[in-house]
């Protein structure tokens, strides 16, 4: 195998995460990766221009993914969301958002909230305000178990007990004694001795044990839910897989369905070159005994293999075409539950009953690991093992101490060597070597310039995909922030680092074969929130792997909302929630037969929906083909409407939360009511209890509402004066007057200073962009000696005033620099006509409509895309808010609407 | 005065920085959580309009970049400059880096952008905030280098080299070293160009002397520039390569050897296979004794047993007189073929077939058995399955023959791979297959008696 003959220069430092003293040499620019050092000089001088034609852009055919299958019959509810748990308090908490139990209750004790925020579930102090609220609202839940325990000691109704047992108390008496008073209401309320006795005896039991038990449990639950919301790693690797069929056009999607995700479906799908993918017939399915967390397929020696991971079980099949139809027997394979830190290979213990299983349905060998993906080995050399075999055991994490029990494993280019990963790093171990050996492949630390808090979320061996393109020794390692490519022959030093900036956890990655021979390989990266990124990797033979061109984002299912008809708010909300459901699986395929490569992408959401999108790679991407012109076709909207109709037929999920029930009130209701209670609320309550409509008389004599005060048109009404001024065409003067009036005396100069500085910064930048070369070299090689610089041939009369304008508020130390800029800035009025511009300049100037006469060929061409592009994705309100920025005076780019511009600009 | 207050503010907001990146109890940070927090609206003050528009603008730029809408990104970028006057000093100080990152990316890909545009932008950005001068200069120089503008790049690097700010921190020092090294690399390019010119000149010519003098000056400067960096731990392949080439040219063999040995064997450096390869190639050029070459490749073998130099290593070992070298030679061949990327390496199979026969003829059955012991449970399905027999025969008949011979020797006549190949009827290869059958019969390690 070739090793890159010359690697990219990298600094190597050992140390912990977030070592601030290390300059991050990767800089995170995608373009930096396209830079190659000119290896030999003559070659370099030949093609000095950047090779931009390799920029690949997959064009989506629709603005968002479309549903492939009708929605499942099970209702779905998003459950607890981050918003339910997060709380933003008053000023002191503005910077410290907190997870608290109840949003309606303002937390009075910040330490509790922040403790939960930091995930410390060991805090035993219950959050009293929330808990008392909970006990009050959900007393039946909180006290029912205790109540049941003490049932024999209470008599709920009936006449006075004539029982001989002294231990039975009549509840009716107790409640009568309370007399409708709430115990926490009036401190002087009368307490009977019965009540007193009950309070003294019951208090410790009911108060403390319930509160502390409940508090602990609630805390535990809250912490678990919170962790899960932050990162749900159960579906790492993805629960959707594509099994290629006999022809390129047909294949099977394998995915779990059902509320518990315990039914594995095999849906045959046909990919027609011109049209959308279509599901063929009903899916076949297997009922499993646990939730499916991951589904992986791989073709090994011409055979497709399918592996499934459940929470504690793994299984591996050879799928056959017969799976598409008919029911299959449940297939059991077992993996004993191992303590975290154990990595074990797996084999199937109980093969399926032979009489029901097709011939080629027998389980074959699988090496795999608990707490890890059941990925079929790319190397078909593992013998069928009748029992589990321990490969690796380490209760500790690899690099530094991290409490996460997550472990992961994958294969390497050497069939006997496996990678074992946890949140802190990845290690290579020889499965047949002595225990305890191994070599760290990736270290969460300064070696890879990791940030503070950075953790490994996914590791994947990339070598099995296609031997012809990338080195078969590469491993992908994803963290929350970055993506690393590590070569197992050079451990610890990433060959490539890219800051993916995905707004959710990247848990899925798939390396696809090159769409065309010689093309870079697409790497699909999927985030939990449905975010997709497509990167292009290249680097075969003696060159190091690198990004070919800038990465690209793909539409996510929430982009499809516009394809659905508008609904009434409740259904619309339901649809939105459904489309926003977290993704749990991703599968992509590029059928090779099509003349233009088409990438079919399938996404499985936790709600059980399979969405697809098609992207094609234009044969010759022109320099201006960056506009996404996809729009909804009638077929697409019809498809969405059909799906929506089916979705709305599914009964909505029963509410997770129901209004509290006050069971004791029913008892109280029979008692005498207080006389003094006003009639209005009473009638209201009665109406509510009966569930009938409120009528006017129920409300009684409510205080008559005052009419709202009429707006006073006075001197303070800015809007009308502004409109008046605008009508008279004197908006500018109004604005100046307004400026003068509303600005505070102390604050205004500072802001003005900043803005002017910015504007001048920018105008000097944009001015130079176009006109610099006429009189001066592109760089200012010697900034320290401004006198030595050539001045423009004619000093423009307007220049002095311009300088005045910009120089007014610029700090003195920067004025000189700026003045140097300005000095060499030939303004429009005095640029010598007919000056011969360098060739590289003409293209930029051509785009500026204000000066067509200076061009040699005189063509003035307006870029047509600007407005349409903006309109495509940004609503007009956003546009206006963004355009209304201080730099606006110099801002309009190439728009041509303001012909009097002095400094046309390029770039930005 | 204003600088001082800025410093004060900075030190104060340093603590806040931690909160903006959200951690859980495990110490893991979740960048996506800020988004959730933004959606919670109970109580508290909302973000200021300024911050809202700025972050929205940043989002639009990133979105446009990821959709390759360069013009749109440029338009938004224009509005994003307002962040430079953010009242939050922490944000304001982080802004230039973000602007540089996004702006340079836009200008790199924008169809209407030119080198001049990029230059102007880079020059401007270097002076906004002091902390980024070196980084931006370096990237700017790389950009120019990529565009073939070596002189401009050199000028840029020279500027950056002399730049100092405050006390020299270690990160600054590394960056300056790196800048100097890149400058050295540029000088190396010039030097190698001159060297090529020189090779066309006559030695007696007057021009030759001036040219060689010129070259010498260059090399001296270059060595100064390169030396500092390559002593810092890291991967410095292009620098080391060019430095060694210059040293060698001027006959400083000891210096070159020292640099390479240090690069390969210093424990502070990562185990870079290229370091060993460079050293090996140097020693080979130097005509070092075989022992020495073997000792270098032995280490490479331990790091990368799949490297293509391993076949050369095998040849060296085969030629060696020592018995344990011969044994290692067999081990190396087996080691190469262990890797998934090397399964179709016909040379390796050819060597293995030949060397197996040779070893067995030399009565070293134990060596073969030792190697085979750890592989016999997975090589048959890894290399010698009937799938591979069919596909190898279809794709590369020569490879199939070599593999069949190895399979026959290691697994016996009954092996599926061998059986499949030996049954093939091919006009051209008939004789060869016959030979294979013969050698298998003679050498097979599988005892037919058992």
Automatic annotation (TrEMBL), chain B:
PANTHER family in the cross-refs: TATA BOX-BINDING PROTEIN ASSOCIATED FACTOR RNA POLYMERASE I SUBUNIT A, TATA BOX-BINDING PROTEIN-ASSOCIATED FACTOR RNA POLYMERASE I SUBUNIT A
This protein's encoding gene: TAF1A
Protein name (record): TATA box-binding protein-associated factor RNA polymerase I subunit A
Main location: nucleus
Transmembrane segments: none
Taxonomic path: Eukaryota, Metazoa, Chordata, Craniata, Vertebrata
Keywords, ordered alphabetically: DNA-binding, Nucleus, Transcription, Transcription regulation
Function of the protein: Component of the transcription factor SL1/TIF-IB complex, which is involved in the assembly of the PIC (pre-initiation complex) during RNA polymerase I-dependent transcription. The rate of PIC formation probably is primarily dependent on the rate of association of SL1/TIF-IB with the rDNA promoter. SL1/TIF-IB is involved in stabilization of nucleolar transcription factor 1/UBTF on rDNA. Formation of SL1/TIF-IB excludes the association of TBP with TFIID subunits.
Subunit: Component of the transcription factor SL1/TIF-IB complex, composed of TBP and at least TAF1A, TAF1B, TAF1C and TAF1D. In the complex interacts directly with TBP, TAF1A and TAF1B. Interaction of the SL1/TIF-IB subunits with TBP excludes interaction of TBP with the transcription factor IID (TFIID) subunits.
One Pfam match: TAF1_subA
GO molecular function, one term: DNA binding
The keyword Nucleus belongs to this UniProt entry's keyword annotation: yes
GO biological process: transcription by RNA polymerase I
Subcellular location per the Swiss-Prot or TrEMBL entry: Nucleus, Nucleolus
GO cellular component terms, semicolon-separated: microtubule cytoskeleton; nucleoplasm; RNA polymerase transcription factor SL1 complex
Organism: Ursus americanus (American black bear)
Xref: InterPro entries: RNA_pol_I_TAF1A/TAFI48_chr (IPR016629), SL1/TIF-IB_Component (IPR052669), TAF1A (IPR039495)
């Amino acid at each position: 195998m070739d090793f890159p003959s010359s690697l990219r220069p990298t600094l190597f430092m050992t140390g912990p995460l977030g070592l601030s003293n290390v300059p991050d040499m990767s800089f995170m620019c995608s373009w930096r990766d396209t830079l190659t050092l000119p290896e030999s000089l003559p070659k370099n001088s030949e093609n000095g221009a950047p090779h931009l034609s390799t920029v690949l852009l997959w064009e989506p055919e629709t603005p968002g993914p479309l549903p492939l299958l009708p929605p499942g019959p099970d209702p779905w509810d998003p459950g607890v969301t981050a918003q339910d748990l997060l709380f933003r308090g008053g000023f002191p908490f503005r910077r410290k958002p907190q997870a608290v139990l109840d949003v309606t209750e303002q937390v009075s004790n910040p330490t509790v909230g922040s403790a939960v925020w930091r995930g410390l579930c060991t805090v035993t102090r219950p959050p009293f305000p929330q808990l008392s609220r909970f006990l009050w609202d959900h007393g039946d839940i909180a006290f029912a178990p205790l109540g049941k325990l003490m049932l024999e000691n209470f008599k709920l109704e009936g006449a006075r007990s004539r029982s001989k047992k002294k231990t039975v108390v009549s509840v009716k008496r107790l409640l009568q004694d309370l007399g409708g008073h709430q115990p926490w209401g009036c401190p002087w309320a009368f307490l009977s001795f019965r009540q007193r006795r009950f309070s003294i005896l019951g208090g410790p039991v009911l108060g403390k044990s319930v509160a502390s038990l409940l508090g602990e449990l609630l805390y535990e639950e809250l912490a678990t839910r919170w962790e899960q919301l932050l990162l749900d790693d159960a579906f790492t690797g993805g629960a959707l897989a594509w099994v290629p069929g006999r022809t390129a056009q047909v294949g099977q999607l394998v995915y779990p369905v059902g509320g518990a995700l315990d039914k594995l479906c095999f849906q045959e799908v046909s990919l027609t070159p011109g049209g959308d993918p279509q599901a063929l017939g009903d899916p076949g399915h297997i009922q499993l005994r646990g939730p499916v967390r991951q589904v992986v397929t791989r073709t090994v020696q011409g055979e497709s293999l399918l592996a499934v991971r459940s929470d504690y079980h793994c299984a591996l099949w050879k799928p056959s075409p017969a799976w598409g139809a008919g029911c299959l027997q449940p297939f059991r394979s077992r993996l004993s539950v191992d303590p975290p830190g154990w990595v074990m290979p797996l084999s199937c213990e109980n093969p399926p009953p032979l009489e029901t299983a097709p011939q080629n349905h027998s389980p074959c060998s699988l090496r795999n690991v608990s707490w890890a993906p059941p990925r079929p080995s790319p190397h078909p050399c593992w013998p069928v093992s009748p029992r589990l075999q321990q490969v690796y055991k380490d209760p500790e994490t690899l690099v530094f101490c991290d409490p996460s029990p997550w472990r992961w494993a994958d294969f390497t280019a050497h069939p006997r060597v496996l990678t074992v990963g946890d949140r802190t790093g990845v290690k290579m171990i020889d499965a047949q070597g002595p225990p305890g050996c191994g070599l760290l492949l990736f270290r969460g630390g300064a070696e890879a310039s990791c940030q503070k808090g950075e953790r490994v979320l996914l590791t994947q061996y990339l070598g099995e995909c296609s031997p012809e393109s990338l080195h078969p020794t590469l491993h992908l390692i994803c963290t929350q922030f970055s993506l690393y490519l590590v070569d197992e022959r050079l451990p610890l030093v990433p060959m490539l680092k890219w800051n993916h900036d995905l707004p959710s956890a990247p848990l899925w990655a798939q390396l696809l074969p090159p769409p065309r021979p010689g093309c870079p390989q697409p790497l699909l990266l999927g985030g939990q929130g449905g975010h997709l990124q497509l990167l292009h990797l290249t680097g075969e033979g003696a060159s190091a792997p690198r990004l070919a061109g800038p990465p690209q984002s793909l539409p996510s299912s929430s982009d499809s909302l516009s394809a659905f008809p508008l609904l009434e708010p409740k259904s619309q909300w339901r649809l939105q929630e459904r489309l926003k459901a977290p993704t749990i699986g991703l599968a992509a395929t590029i059928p090779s037969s099509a003349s233009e490569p088409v990438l079919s992408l399938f996404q499985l959401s936790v709600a059980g929906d399979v969405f697809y999108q098609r992207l094609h790679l234009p044969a010759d991407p022109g320099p201006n083909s960056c506009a996404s012109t996809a729009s909804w076709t009638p077929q697409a909207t019809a498809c969405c409407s059909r799906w929506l109709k089916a979705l709305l037929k599914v009964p909505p999920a029963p509410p997770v939360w129901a209004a509290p029930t006050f069971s004791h009130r029913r008892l109280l209701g029979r008692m005498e009511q207080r006389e003094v209670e006003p009639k209005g609320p009473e009638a209201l309550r009665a109406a509510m209890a009966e569930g009938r409509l409120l009528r006017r008389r129920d409300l009684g004599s409510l205080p008559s509402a005052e009419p709202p005060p009429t707006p006073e048109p006075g001197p303070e009404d800015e809007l009308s004066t502004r409109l008046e001024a605008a009508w008279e065409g004197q908006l500018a003067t109004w604005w100046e007057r307004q400026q003068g009036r509303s600005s505070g005396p102390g604050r205004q100069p500072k802001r003005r200073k900043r803005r002017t500085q910015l504007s001048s910064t920018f105008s000097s930048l944009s001015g130079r962009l176009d006109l610099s070369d006429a009189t001066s070299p592109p760089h200012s090689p010697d900034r320290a000696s401004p006198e030595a610089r050539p001045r423009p041939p004619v000093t423009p009369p307007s220049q002095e005033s311009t300088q005045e304008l910009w120089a007014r508020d610029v700090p003195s130390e920067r004025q000189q620099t700026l003045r140097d800029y300005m000095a060499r800035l030939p303004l429009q009025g005095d640029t010598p006509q007919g000056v011969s511009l360098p060739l590289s300049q003409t293209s930029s100037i051509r785009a500026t409509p204000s000066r067509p006469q200076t061009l040699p060929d005189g063509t003035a061409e307006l870029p047509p895309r600007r407005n349409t592009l903006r309109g495509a994705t940004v609503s007009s309100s956003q546009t206006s808010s963004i355009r209304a920025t201080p730099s606006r005076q110099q801002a309009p780019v190439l728009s041509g609407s303001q012909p009097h511009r002095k400094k046309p600009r390029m770039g930005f | 005065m204003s600088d001082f207050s800025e410093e004060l503010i900075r030190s104060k907001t340093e603590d806040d920085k931690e909160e903006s990146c959200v951690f859980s109890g495990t110490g893991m940070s979740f960048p996506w959580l800020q988004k959730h927090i933004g959606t919670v609206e109970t109580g508290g003050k909302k973000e200021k309009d300024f911050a809202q528009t700025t972050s929205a603008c940043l989002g639009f730029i990133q979105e446009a970049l990821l959709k390759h809408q360069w013009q749109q990104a440029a338009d938004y970028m224009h509005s994003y400059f307002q962040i430079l006057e953010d009242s939050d000093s922490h944000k304001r100080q982080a802004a230039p880096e973000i602007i540089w990152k996004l702006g340079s990316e836009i200008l790199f890909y924008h169809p209407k952008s030119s080198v001049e545009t990029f230059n102007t932008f880079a020059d401007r950005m270097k002076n906004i905030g002091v902390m980024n001068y070196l980084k931006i200069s370096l990237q700017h120089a790389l950009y120019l280098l990529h565009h073939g503008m070596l002189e401009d790049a050199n000028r840029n690097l020279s500027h950056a080299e002399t730049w100092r700010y405050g006390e020299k921190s270690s990160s600054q020092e590394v960056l300056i070293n790196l800048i100097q090294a890149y400058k050295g690399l540029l000088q190396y390019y010039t030097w190698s160009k001159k060297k090529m010119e020189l090779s066309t000149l006559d030695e007696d010519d007057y021009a030759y002397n001036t040219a060689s003098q010129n070259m010498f000056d260059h090399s001296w400067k270059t060595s100064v520039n390169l030396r500092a960096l390559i002593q810092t731990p890291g991967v410095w392949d292009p620098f080391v390569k060019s430095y060694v080439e210059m040293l060698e040219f001027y006959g400083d063999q000891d210096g070159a050897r020292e640099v390479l040995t240090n690069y390969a064997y210093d424990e502070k450096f990562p185990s870079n296979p290229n370091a060993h390869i460079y050293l090996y190639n140097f020693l080979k050029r130097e005509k070092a004794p075989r022992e020495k070459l073997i000792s270098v490749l032995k280490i490479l073998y331990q790091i990368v047993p799949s490297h293509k130099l391993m076949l050369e290593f095998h040849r060296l070992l085969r030629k060696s007189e020592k018995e344990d070298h011969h044994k290692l030679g067999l081990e190396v061949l087996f080691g190469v073929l262990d890797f998934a990327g090397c399964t179709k390496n016909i040379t390796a199979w050819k060597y293995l077939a030949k060397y197996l026969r040779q070893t067995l003829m030399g009565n070293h059955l134990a060596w073969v058995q030792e190697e085979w012991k750890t592989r016999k449970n997975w090589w048959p399905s890894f290399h010698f399955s009937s799938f591979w027999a069919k596909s190898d025969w279809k794709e590369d008949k020569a490879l199939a023959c070599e593999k069949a011979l190895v399979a026959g020797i290691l697994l016996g006549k009954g092996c599926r791979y061998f059986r499949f190949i030996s049954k093939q009827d091919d006009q051209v290869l008939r004789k060869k297959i016959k030979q294979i059958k013969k050698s298998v019969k003679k050498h097979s390690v599988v005892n037919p008696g058992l």
